[in-house]
């Protein structure tokens, strides 16, 4: 491997720190097994009189990783000292993927019986069903109001916000029950004209309905009016695809005596 010189800032490299390769290697093999240390890969100028030397890592299971030994020289001093020794991944190293919070990793269908998925108090998809005025409420006040609302039988505490409404509509329209689904692209007609479509009330009625065809893939699901499938109520088979009529029945009228005469 060809040694590299990486300069992260436009500083004049410190000659003594750059030349301290042997010092860096000696300090490294005091911390780790010498068999795990490979060739010197170059240096990185971190700052004024501050240089990091890189060594290949030959430890099994750490392909592409490298040892990083940072050395420094104090002002007006000739001696170079070791600051830090760490193992860092290179461009070809296998590392864990970027952390994704648990809440963001959950996908539709992941919940099992008994699993709970709480909704945050400030979830933008929901708003209070009743109005509290313009003053913000802290967590304790929200909890008290919910308790009172439940005791008074005021119904749902929160309902869909305009943002939550739009997100749901867009998700349904872009999903498998929307017009771009493969089954809809090859359908003979749309759900709008299907007798099995149950209409919705409210603002979503112009775009969505519920399929009530027990033979359809989308039975019991919200479908867009421009969705479709092969189970449309008015679909008809072409004559060449219709079942062929059975031939006339043949009735055997021969008796035993007639058979003997042949």
From TrEMBL:
What InterPro entries does this protein's entry cite? DUF3027
Q: Record the organism.
A: Nocardioides luti
> Which Pfam family would be a valid example here?
DUF3027
Q: What is this protein called?
A: DUF3027 domain-containing protein
Q: What superkingdom does the record give? A: Bacteria
């Amino acid at each position: 491997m060809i040694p590299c010189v990486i300069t992260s800032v436009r500083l004049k490299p410190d000659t003594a720190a750059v030349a301290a390769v042997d010092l860096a290697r000696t300090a490294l093999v005091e911390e780790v097994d010498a068999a795990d240390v490979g060739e010197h890969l170059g240096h990185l100028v971190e700052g004024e009189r501050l240089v990091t030397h890189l060594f290949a890592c030959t430890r099994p299971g750490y392909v592409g990783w490298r040892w990083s030994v940072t050395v420094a020289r104090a002002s007006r001093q000739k001696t170079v000292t070791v600051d830090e020794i760490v193992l860092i991944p290179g461009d070809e190293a296998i590392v864990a993927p970027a952390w994704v919070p648990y809440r963001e990793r959950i996908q539709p269908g992941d919940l099992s019986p008994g699993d709970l998925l709480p909704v945050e108090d400030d979830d933008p998809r929901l708003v209070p069903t009743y109005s509290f005025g313009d003053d913000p409420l802290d967590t304790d006040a929200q909890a008290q109001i919910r308790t009172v609302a439940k005791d008074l039988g005021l119904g749902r505490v929160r309902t869909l916000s305009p943002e939550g409404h739009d997100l749901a509509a867009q998700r349904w329209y872009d999903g498998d029950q929307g017009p771009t689904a493969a089954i809809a692209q090859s359908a003979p007609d749309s759900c709008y004209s299907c007798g099995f479509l149950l209409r919705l009330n409210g603002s979503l009625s112009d775009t969505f309905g519920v399929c009530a065809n027990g033979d359809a893939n989308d039975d019991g699901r919200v479908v867009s009016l421009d969705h479709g499938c092969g189970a449309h109520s008015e679909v008809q088979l072409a004559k060449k695809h219709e079942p062929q009529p059975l031939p006339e029945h043949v009735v055997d009228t021969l008796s035993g005596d007639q058979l003997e005469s042949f």
